[in-house]
Amino acid sequence: MKAERQSAAWPLGIYQALKQAGVKQVAYVPDAGHSQLIKACHADREIKAVCLTTEEEGVAMLAGAWLGGERGVLLMQSSGAGNCINMLGMIAECRFPLLMILTMRGHWGEFNPWQVPMSQATVPALNAIGVVVQPVDRAAEIAETVSAAARLAFSTGRAVAVLISQRVIGAKQFK
Amino acid sequence: MKHRKPTLDRRKVVADILKQRGDALIMPGLGAPTWDAAAAGDHPLTFYSWGGMGGAAMMGLGLALAQPRRRVLVITGDGELLMGLGSLATIGVQQPRNLAVIVIDNEHYGETGMQPTHTLYGVDLPAMARAAGFRSAETVYTSSQLKAWIPRFYQEPGPMFCSIKVTTADAPLVLPVRDGTAIKHRFREALLGASEAHK
Fold first, then answer.
1. Domain covering A2-166 in this structure, CATH number
2. How close does chain A come to B136, measured CA to CA in Å?
3. Chain A partners within 8 Å of B84 (Cβ)
4. Does residue A118 have a pLDDT over 80?
5. What is the three-class DSSP state of A152?
6. Would the pLDDT of A169 be above 90?
7. pTM of the model
8. What is the C-alpha to C-alpha distance for residues A21 and A79, in angstroms, rounded to an integer?
């Protein structure tokens, strides 16, 4: 599974979609599913890749980026969605555009029971605070979903979260 | 640890800082720092916060990264900063040279009934900022210390951090525009120009 994940094409597809969308700031809390994308962003001199201590920092950071005229993206696991809720209220009130890409934990083939509650609460919690949620469960459709989500976010001033299924990433192997 | 009683007046502190603002971008945290900034004189390049507690320093980081040629001053409260302590570490790693984080530290939660914050009991925010990698970080108690610091906020390579100890004396409410979308548009139009702001 690990080797398969490292050689997957879709993280590079996301990277290209982000470049086309003009994304200059990438804020993230690491996730294994995003590791290839995070590496690509750090290697890109036009992108400021910022590792966070908690996901809500990235929500605030990208609001500041937009005020300064730059587009950004926030990468996280679904486990971090709950950390963002109050800060997302500011995004909704100010109509800040916010593009988020979440890799799902806690549903498809999960082994760790502690991941399940936040996973199951991710979509209703994001919906409740006004985020447009766009799930994708086929690798071939990820890049176009990110492109469409970026256009929706930056053209209409909305928070949009792309949720990448654990089915694509593969469940974490505890061995 | 012996407590040193603050004597500075928050309104005068913020007004003195903002008198020198030039073309700097100002990011006040929610509550009293936003009222202080409004009292110092309305300005389109002040992004008034009415919410998003814990996010002011990180909003400042995103803005500073997007506008590396402009100074960014985050002016926030001790309670607000305490809610986002991790951001000190994130900013310390990024080393934005154009960012100053200023805490107007009255050692209390002023908007919610004047409960003490951790800083009243000696939690040392500048020491935390230094440990996180800020280039300079100090506590200011006197007007002469403040006078020496104000030009540094606008000139010295950051990230810098300053905790300015102020009294809990009541200041009259001065409320800026509330609508978040309006504040955002006004800020972006002033900074980027109307056509770029609404592209």
1. 3.40.50.970
2. 21
3. 56-57, 60
4. yes
5. helix
6. no
7. 0.96
8. 26
